[in-house]
Design brief:
534 residues, mainly beta, Immunoglobulin-like, 5-stranded mixed beta sheet, 4% helix
Length: 534
């Protein structure tokens, strides 16, 4: 029994000894994995001149490495000026531009890249190029010019202190921003101008016209800046502009519905002095579609606090309807512009713009032709002259967005198209509808751009129909003649009503009694629900 216990002891000891020897023989294999980062990697490695950027080689399995910087840069603490074998290096650049920093690495074996890849690169030696963009300091710069009567750019203004460049009140100047150092944010303080603070971000090279309206001598401040790498520059010019009184009469340019059906906006050619506005000098007359005339009480007359050339008339206990004819009059009193020019009499100036919402914007109809193709506006098979046309969704002209529908109507031709969904083969399926109400008056309109009018010799027009239940006698939405403007967008509409409530879809019909091909674009279909006086 004692011998057996002794043998068991020897056996266990031997196992323990063998286990210890096996542990000592295990070899830990380090993976070869390339990982390179920079302190500005989230900002496209962009820095200012003189600032530093840190580079780190976090790779595994490295035998050797060598960083090489361009001659316009230096490694802080580098072993040989522009080279280093350290895993972390700090570099500075003395010149603006785009530069390459190269890291040469030798690994123990095939290496995995630092991208999300499960396959190793077949090679032990790799060169990695890191592009660094070095920006020069921001230098604010701009040019300001007078504007000639024909709208062209005139003489430059002096940018010196106390220049007191004279400008007649209500006139515009043109600003061209040309700052250096890649700024992305621009801030203007233009005292005496229509908009005292002007911010330009998206298109810094665009020309911007600014109107000066307030008499006096004014300073200018312009700041150009960027957020990263952070830098900015400021231009401040003392007594830059001197606004002098105008001798031109003030004009009423527009009468429109202002924000609600109880307010009227009067847009004058320049800013009005609020202290000269007297309610009793104004009157409003509303002619209804039934032939009656209403003279509403005026609750108040004020100047828009943000747009000083807008005078707001607020009616008391009366609202305006789209089928009203609204007229505004002013009896000469104290109404005066900020540049001390008195307003002349206003007699029955008609309100021309009611607040209207295009119902197609909330429908499935691609009213601006941005997301559909010509296949969504197929030919409806009327035959005869109505098949003598071609349509294409085009980017050549667009009133809004980027596209419009281009149409060519052949000599003595025409067109008829509807609005439908299409299947995978491009064949029409269901109509694309909008919702209408019976007994409601609508304005149905279209914008047309004429590229080539041809030689109109008779009937030439566009009509907007609908299905089902269209009014074939609706009349022309757009009529072409020898005097129709060419090369510009023109709006035309018709007042319509629908025979039943429910869903309707567009049909667009054209006629071209013409000895030549007519070429037009159409865009921005409209459907406005009009309010009617009960």
């Amino acid at each position: 029994m004692k011998n057996l216990k002794y043998l068991k002891f020897i056996f266990i000891f031997s196992l323990l000894l063998l286990g210890c020897n096996e542990d000592e023989s295990i070899q830990l294999i380090e993976p070869n994995h390339r990982v390179i980062v920079t302190s500005e990697m989230n900002f496209e490695n962009t820095i200012n001149i003189g600032e530093h950027i840190d580079f780190a080689d976090l790779s595994r399995g490295i035998q050797s490495r060598l960083w090489t910087f361009p001659s316009e840069a230096a490694i802080i603490g580098g072993e040989n000026g522009n080279t280093s074998s350290k895993d972390v290096v700090k570099g500075t650049f003395t010149k603006s531009g785009v530069f390459d920093v190269i890291l040469n690495q030798t690994f123990n074996g095939n290496v995995y890249p630092n991208e999300d890849s499960t396959e190793p690169i077949q090679g032990r030696e790799l060169d990695t190029t890191i592009v660094v963009t070095v920006l020069a300091p921001v230098e604010a710069s701009f040019q300001m010019n007078y504007i000639n009567e024909d709208g062209t750019t005139g003489a430059p203004l002096s940018l010196n202190d106390n220049a007191e460049n004279e400008i007649v009140a209500s006139k515009f100047v043109r600003i061209t921003q040309n700052s250096n150092g890649s700024p992305t944010n621009f801030r203007w303080s233009l005292q005496g101008a229509k908009t005292e603070f002007l911010e330009v971000v998206d298109d810094p090279d665009a020309e911007t016209d600014v109107r000066y309206t307030k008499l006096g001598t004014w300073d200018l401040q312009f700041v150009a800046a960027r957020t990263r790498p952070t830098d900015s520059d400021t231009i401040y010019i003392k007594n830059f502009i001197k606004v002098i009184p105008s001798t031109e009469p003030v004009t009423l340019d527009r009468v429109y519905e202002y924000e609600t059906e109880t307010k009227i906006g009067l847009e004058f050619s320049r800013e009005i002095d609020p202290a000269t506005v007297v309610k009793e000098d104004f009157s409003v007359a509303i002619e209804t579609n039934a032939g009656a005339t209403i003279v509403p009480e005026i609750a108040g007359v004020t100047v828009d606090p943000n747009e000083g050339n807008i005078v707001i008339i607020e009616l008391a206990n009366e609202i305006m309807y789209n089928d009203d004819l609204v007229k505004v009059s002013y009896t000469p009193g104290t109404l005066t512009t900020l540049d001390l020019v008195a307003s002349e009499a206003i007699i029955d100036a008609e309100l021309t713009d009611f607040i209207k919402i295009n119902l197609l914007e909330s429908s499935a109809v691609d009213y601006s032709f941005e997301t559909t193709t010509e296949k969504n506006w197929p030919y409806l098979g009327w035959g005869g002259r109505f098949e003598l046309f071609d349509t294409t969704v085009s980017r050549d002209q667009a009133r809004t967005g980027e596209k419009s529908l281009y149409i060519e109507m052949e000599p003595d031709g025409g067109m008829i198209i509807g609005n439908t969904e299409v299947d995978d083969n491009g064949d029409p399926t269901d109509n694309i509808n909008f919702t209408v109400e019976k007994g409601v008056t609508y304005e149905m309109g279209i914008w047309v751009y004429i590229e080539d009018l041809g030689n109109v010799t008779g009937e030439a027009n566009i009509r907007l129909y609908w299905r089902p239940g269209t009014n074939w006698g609706i009349g022309d939405n757009f009529t072409f003649s020898g005097t129709t403007p060419v090369g510009e967008w023109v709006y035309s509409s018709a007042i319509v009503s629908f025979s039943a409530s429910g869903e309707a879809s567009y049909m667009i019909r054209g006629v071209s009694t013409n000895t030549e091909t007519m070429k037009i674009y159409i865009d921005d279909l409209t459907l406005f629900k009009l309010t009617s006086r009960p």
